[in-house]
Amino acid sequence: MNQQSKETKIKYHAGYEYLLAYKITVPIYDYTVVFCKRCSSPNFLNYPNLSSHRTFDQMVQAARSGMTNIPEGNQQASLEGYIKLTGVNKGSLEELLKDFLSFARQNKVEIWVKEETVRRVREVGKVWGILKATPTLPDSPNFPDLPKDLAQAVNLMITLINQAIYLQKRLQESLEEKFVQKGGFRENLFKKRLEQKRKNF
User: Fold this and answer.
1) Contact by Cβ (8 Å): 125, 118
2) CB 156 within 8 A of CB 31
3) Is 145 exposed, middle or buried (0-12, 13-18, 19+ CB in 10 A)?
4) φ, ψ of residue 41 in degrees (nearest 5)
5) What is the spatial distance between Cα 116 and Cα 156, in angstroms, rounded to a whole number?
6) What pLDDT score does 175 carry?
7) Which residues, other chains included, contact 44 with Cβ-Cβ below 8 Å and sequence gap of 6+?
C-alpha cells in the first residue's frame, strides 16, 4: 500500500471532536432522549410522567443544544464567537440539569453524591472508559443502556451533566485566556492591516 492510499484511509476529525467537553455531551443527549421516552411509555411504569409534553421537548432540545454549540463554535472564524457558543452550550446543560433535579424533587428520587453514584452506577465508569479509550469518539461508541432503575438513571444523568458543565467551564476559561493573550479575529486582522500599511510606506 503506497503512502497516498494510507492517507486516504485516515479519517479527518475536527478539532472539537478531541475535546472531552464535547465527547461527554453525546451520551448525555442519547440518554436524555431515552429517559424522556421512558417517562411516556407504558412499558416503564416505574418512570413517572414528565410534567408536560413541553418539558419533554425542552429537555431533549437542551440536551441537543448542549451537544451542538461546541462544534458550531469551533467552526467560527472569530474566537469571540467560539467563546459565546461555548457559554450557550454550558447554559443549555445547566437548564437540563435543573430539569433533572426538578424531576427528582417532584418524584422523591434521592440524589446521591458523586462518589456514591460512581460506586452504585457502573454505567458511569463504562461511559468514561469509552470516552477515554480513543482520541475521538468511535463511529459506534456503544454506550451502555440507560439503567432501568429510576434512581440509578436519574443520578447517572445528574452526574454526567455536572461533569460536562465543569469541563465546558474549563474550556470557556481556556478560550478566554487565549483571547486575552492572542486577541480575537478582528483584532488580529487589524494588526495585519497595520503591518501591511507599514510595509507599503
Assistant:
1) yes
2) yes
3) exposed
4) -105, 135
5) 11
6) 83
7) 38, 148
Query: 118-148: per-residue pLDDT in tens?
Result: 999 999 999 999 999 999 999 899 999 999 9
The owner of cell 507599514 is: 198
Residue 58's nearest CA partner among 111, 16, 95 is 95
- Cα–Cα distance for residue pair 189/195, rounded to 1 Å: 10
3-state secondary structure 42-94: CCCCCCCCCCCHHHHHHHHHHHHHHHHHHHHHHCCCCHHHHHHHHHHHHHHHH
Helix-strand-coil split of the chain, %, nearest 5: 75, 0, 25
The residue among 19, 163, 172, 150 whose CA lies nearest residue 97 is 163
* pLDDT number for residue 9: 52
pLDDT score of 131: 96
CA distances from 156 to 32, 47, 91, 148, 166 (A): 11, 15, 19, 11, 16
Q: Which three cell numbers stand for residue 159?
A: 452526574
Question: Which stretches in the chain have pLDDT values below 70?
Answer: 1-11, 77, 183-201
Q: What pLDDT is stored for residue 147 in this prediction?
A: 97
How far is Cα 173 from Cα 150, in angstroms, rounded to an integer? 35
Contact 60, 30 (CB under 8 A): no
